[in-house]
Write a structure and sequence with these properties.
The chain is mainly α. The protein contains 7 helices and no strands.
Length: 209
């Protein structure tokens, strides 16, 4: 019982830190040493909007992986989720730092994004490890496509944001591949479509809020 209580407290502490934007990267920021060139108001606003969307994605990733690890029944899968969460934590720190450099802020709706993602992660895990891993594969596939679009949409001279997004994309592809190799089941098409629709709502809203 004490272990459950300790786990609950640790989970609440992590959620509060993620929502508040408190994150420390374990790897150097890919944008370190990249010149920060001047952006006009519209370019800075657009870069900030895209990086806020990416930051929200990392808030959701922390919630998803924490829930999936907590409710998984396999130690190997728990370990994989924990490792992926650490790398996603790097993304969280990098995007938060870039937002600050751009003179902007994280999404005001981070508590809502975190809570919703945690519920989805828990539900996926309860269905079974194969479908939980399948949820990761589909999520990372959509995120990779989303990051690829950002690489073309960012202002051409914003090399700092582009360096961060490029490394994030590499990591997301690896996370999806790892989940696939561990026995991910393909999700039904209606579930994939529902995930795409939810992601569209999140990204559109987070760009502004």
């Amino acid at each position: 019982m004490m272990r459950n209580i300790d786990g609950f407290i640790a989970g609440i502490d992590k959620a509060l830190r993620v929502i508040a934007g408190v994150a420390v990267a374990s790897r150097p920021n890919p944008a370190l040493g990249v010149p920060d060139v001047a952006l006009d108001h519209a370019e800075r606003r657009h870069s900030a909007g895209l990086m806020r969307v990416n930051h929200v994605g990392e808030v959701c990733a922390q919630a998803l992986y924490d829930a999936q690890a907590r409710f998984s029944t396999t130690d190997a899968i728990k370990k994989q989720f924990a490792q992926a969460a650490q790398e996603e934590g790097d993304h969280l720190a990098w995007t938060a730092e870039r937002l600050q450099e751009l003179g902007s802020r994280p999404s005001l709706l981070n508590p809502l994004w975190y809570a919703g993602a945690y519920v989805l992660g828990a539900a996926a895990a309860k269905v079974g490890d194969a479908h939980s891993l399948g949820f990761v594969v589909e999520t990372e596939r959509q995120v990779e496509a989303h990051l690829a679009s950002h690489l073309t949409s960012l202002p051409s001279q914003d090399d700092k944001s582009r360096a961060i997004v490029a490394q994030m994309r590499i990591d997301e592809v690896e996370h999806g591949a790892a989940a696939h190799e561990m026995g991910a089941a393909e999700l039904p098409k209606p579930v994939q479509k529902a995930m795409q629709a939810a992601a569209k709502i999140m990204t559109t809203t987070a760009y502004y809020l």
